[in-house]
Structures are given as C-alpha cells and as structure tokens.
Design brief:
The longest helix is centred in the middle third of the chain and has 27 residues. A two-stranded parallel sheet has the order 1-2. The protein is 63% helix and 5% strand. The protein has one domain. Helix 2 links the parallel strand 1 and strand 2. By secondary structure, the chain is mainly alpha-helical. It holds the Pfam family YidD.
C-alpha cells in the first residue's frame, strides 16, 4: 500500500479504535452481524485501503438495521 494510503487508513482507523475501546464498552451490544460493524470497518480499511474499505464500511452500516439481514458477514 502506498504511504499516503497508509496514512489515510491510519486516520480513518482512529475514530474506530476510539469507538471500540471507549464508547462500545459502555453500551449494550446491538450489532446484528458478526463481526460487528466497527470491526468490519477496521478489517475493510486494512484489507482494501481507504476508498474501497470506506465504501464497504458505509454499505455495511447502512445494512445494519431492523429491516436488514443478520448473521456472519465477513469482509470480502
């Protein structure tokens, strides 16, 4: 991965890490999928880089609702 992509991915991962380690432990589990949406976003960014990873993460968050699916949904 290009150094600029790594820098952007690192910046995008910071709020995810903050959520996973500070906010999420204080709230009851609510994600319908495995892995959780935040973990999916983290994995997608690391695996696919900032553009495709962010697009996959946003699509996943949009699907995580009472009318969406549930269950095991790994990063492609």
């Amino acid at each position: 991965m290009h150094w600029l992509s790594r820098l952007v991915v690192g910046a995008l991962l910071l709020p995810i890490y903050f959520y996973q380690h500070v906010i999420s432990p204080c709230t009851p589990p609510s994600c319908r999928f495995t892995p959780t949406c935040s973990e999916y976003a983290r994995q997608a960014l690391i695996k696919h880089g900032p553009l495709k990873g962010l697009a996959l993460a946003i699509w996943r968050i949009l699907r995580c609702n009472p009318w969406g699916g549930s269950g095991y949904d790994p990063v492609p």
